[in-house]
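[job 0412] stage=complex_fold ligand=flavin mononucleotide status=START
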Amino acid sequence: MNRNILGNSEEQVDIANLRKNYTSGGLVEDDLLDDPVEFFKLWLNQAIDSEVPEPNAMSLATVSESGKAENRIVLLKGVGKRSIQFYTNYNSRKGKSLEVNPSVAVNFWWAELERQVRMNGDAAKLSRRESEDYFQSRPRESQLGAWASEQSSEITNRAELSKSFEAVKQRFGKDPIPTPGFWGGYNITLNEIEFWQGRPGRLHDRILYTYGDGGWTFKRLQP
Ligand SMILES: Cc1cc2nc3c(=O)[nH]c(=O)nc-3n(C[C@H](O)[C@H](O)[C@H](O)COP(=O)(O)O)c2cc1C
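[job 0412] stage=complex_fold status=DONE, emitting structure tokens
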């Protein structure tokens, strides 16, 4: 078999041999809460307290109109009773996919805590009011950036982007910056949440919550 060797000549790394034994914790049924969203908030707070870099960064998978899987990182910006929220450009690739297929999968990986949280749900646009409230709370530079970028469209070069940013800056001067109609949030209504805690010997803990008629129920999955 070909070994996958990475690194420079001083220090070579065989990625097939990269592995870590997870020892920092365990997840037993007594630890759980009836409401997995509350449990997620607990884990998120622990990730924040542990100074995990970008604890609210999550991978967001969508399905394109032609059925292709796609994935990117976005930032979690809110947690509701049975939902989570993020913000983006509605004309972006993900925006176009969500238009035809609201089904999403989300993943958080907090390496320092050896924890993963997976979620499944359906995304729907937030109300205009909610998107505006969040947009108006953003730093001015981010607001200008949202106007300047047609996210996911091709651009000839970096200079074009800078030009677009300068033009937007001129246009708004010192005025308050309105929320672009093409920009806003999504609310993901959650159907499944799985909590994964790394354990020694690959005998990890996995607890899967599913939402049904009677509310949330959970089961333990094999690692
Ligand atoms: C740490 C991190 C945070 C990001 N947060 C966001 C975000 O909140 N919203 C967003 O639209 N893009 C965010 N991005 C950029 C996306 O990963 C992606 O490049 C962009 O949304 C275009 O994706 P699309 O072409 O699939 O629509 C983030 C990227 C990184 C690495």
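The pocket of flavin mononucleotide is lined by residues 54, 57, 70, 72-75, 86-89, 92-94, 151-152 (CB under 6 Å).
[job 0412] exit 0
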